[in-house]
Structures are given as structure tokens and as C-alpha cells.
Amino acid sequence: MMKRMAIATLVLTLTATVAGQEPGRRGDWGGAGGNWGPRQWLDRMVEGFDHELGFDEQQWVQLDTIVAAQEARAREAFAQWQEVGSAMAVGDQTRAAELREQLLKQFNGSEGGMRDMFNEIETVLQEDQLARFQEMRQTMQQWRDHGRQMWQAVRELPDTVEMTDEQRQDFHALLRDRWQAMQEEMRQRSEQGLDGIQWDAPDFAALEDDFYGQVAELLDEKQQSLLSDYRLQFATRGQPTEQQQTDDVRNVLKAMKRVRELSGEQRDALREIEHDALNSYREVRRYKERSAALAADVKARIIAVLNPEQSEEFTRSLERLRPRRERR
Q1: Contact, 270 vs 302, CB < 8 A?
Q2: Contact 126, 189 (CB under 8 A)
Q3: Considering the domain boundaries, does residue 149 fall inside one?
Q4: Domain boundary among 188, 204, 220
């Protein structure tokens, strides 16, 4: 069964899907999708929304005005990026960096520069349409955030887990295979037309497990440990310090990995505990009480697997991971 690729985004699926359609009710633009301008892509995006929400004629009139305003913003942004290219072409890296920083501030975190358009669309929706559209916006933002995070991981992993030259080649081959599989899935979705768009968010934890699981197969035992540490660190990146618990899941799992003389059965059990903990931590890490409860549960599961001597070793390791002022 074809798996959804972790590096895909729903917006990419949407544009690829609607690009394969014949010109619809909003006008005849002609040409292949690759030759379309901003207006054509925006109109096709709104048609995707219409397929899910069902706009009436009055709403379409208002939406035409909204799309035209977004087209103007898109063309302005394109002109700004051309300025960046021009500055780089003449060797003015300082100016290019300034312009690039301005653009990143303008669009980063703003739903890919579409926030104004989406906010305006919400003003013309009926109550039931609005509720569904807000769910769709959330899904698009989740895909965007997920795609950005996974792209960052792709850049950082080879050095972080100390891949050899041969492993790096295998890693790049893995990424190429996943990209090709994603393209094939998108081709199949495009054949379904607007029915191929899936607005409900997938299981992002499962997508990450699939990706990191394939990466782990390329690594030795030491590198797999580095990979596990990276996933924990990456999951909490940007989290305020006051939300990080003394015995949070990261420290609990670090202490677990310091326990020695484990049997094969114990290693398998602890590996399963780590897998479950990583998945659960994604959901609770921003909530103090739920994060603390998860840490306590993981600790209890770990201790249940260990013998008395190993449990003492685990407890001592966890104690050493606590800030000095919180040690008892």
C-alpha cells in the first residue's frame, strides 16, 4: 500500500491535483499547469475549497475580489524575490541578505503568505462552512510545519548521527526513493480530480516513525542511539524552559539508555517503551501536567522491566540528570 511521504505537504497535493484539471467555472486560462501565473494557481486553490465547502454565486463574487488582492500580494512578493536575485547577481550580498530577511519575516509562520487571503475568505462563509474551513486551515498549517521540520531533519541528520560517506549515499538514495514514491502517489491523486484532495490531517507521528525507521536501518547501534537522542531534542526545540520538566521524557529515556547488562528481552521491551514515549510526547509536550504524568508513566514502565540493581542504576542516572538545585 502506498504510504504518504513525510516530506509531502497538503498544499502541494492540492496544487498538483487541480493543475491536472481542465479549466473550470472561473474562466479559461489555458496552457499547462507549469505555465500558470499566480492567479491561475489561486483560482484552482479556491476551486478546491469550493469542492469541499460549496460556495454560492454571491460568495463567488466576493471570492473573486479576495483572490485578486492575493494575486497582487503574490506578484509583489515575486518582484521582491527578483530584487534578491539582482542583488546577488551584482555581488551585493549584504543587500540580498537584508531583502531575504524581510521576505522571510513577512511569510514565515503566515501560512505560506496566504494568511490574509484565508482570513478574508472566512468573512464570506456561512457558519457551517466557517467551521470546516478552519479545520482545513489547521490541516494545511500542520502539513506546512511538518514539512519544514522534516526538511530541517534531512539537512541535519547526516552530521548529527555521524554518517559515513557510504551511509550518506544510501541516505540520499532513500530520500530519492521516497520522493519518487510521493510523486507517484500525487499522480494517482491528480487522476481522481478534486476528489483526490484529503483535507483531514494524517497521523504525523506515524509518518515520522516511517521516515526515522528507514533511516535507522542504515545506521549501526551507536548511530541509532544518536538518532534517538536527536528525535528527543528535535521534538522539544523551541519549547520554553519553564515548560521542561525535571523528569521529563527526554531525561527519563536518557537515564534508561545508561542502564548496563541488559538481556535481549529487556532491550526489546525498553525499545518498545521508547517508541511509545516518543509518540506520546509529541502530543503532550506543551502541557505541563500531562507531560509530567507521561514521564511518571514511562518511569514506571521502565522500572518494571529492570531488576533491582538495574533500577537503582536507572534512578541514580536520572538523579544526575536533574539540575543541581532540584536534587534531593
Answers
A1: yes
A2: no
A3: yes
A4: 204
pLDDT at 34 over 60: no
- The reply to whether 221 falls in a domain is no
Number of domains in the chain: 2
Q: Which residues contact 69 (CB under 8 A, 6 or more apart)?
A: 116, 117, 120
- Mean pLDDT score, 219-232: 88
Asked if 317 and 268 sit in the same domain, the reply is: yes
pTM for the full model? Answer: 0.54
Domain that holds residue 254: 242-326
CA atoms of 40 and 37, how far apart (whole Å)? 6
Question: Look-up: residue for cell 515520522?
Answer: 208
196 and 256 share a domain? Answer: no
Assess if residue 106 is contained within a domain.
yes
**Same-domain check for residues 179 and 247:** no
The pLDDT of residue 99: 80
- What residue spans of the chain are helical by DSSP H? 10-19, 38-53, 57-89, 93-107, 115-122, 127-160, 165-191, 204-216, 221-235, 249-257, 264-284, 288-305, 308-321
pLDDT score, position 326: 46
Amino acid identity at 68: A
Could you tell me if 30 and 142 lie in one domain? yes
- Which amino acid does the sequence have at 229? D
Angle, nearest 10°, between helix axes 10-19 and 165-191? 50
| Residues 268-315: tens digit of each pLDDT | 889 888 888 887 777 777 667 777 888 888 888 898 888 888 888 888
How far is 246 from 252, CA to CA, in rounded Å?
9
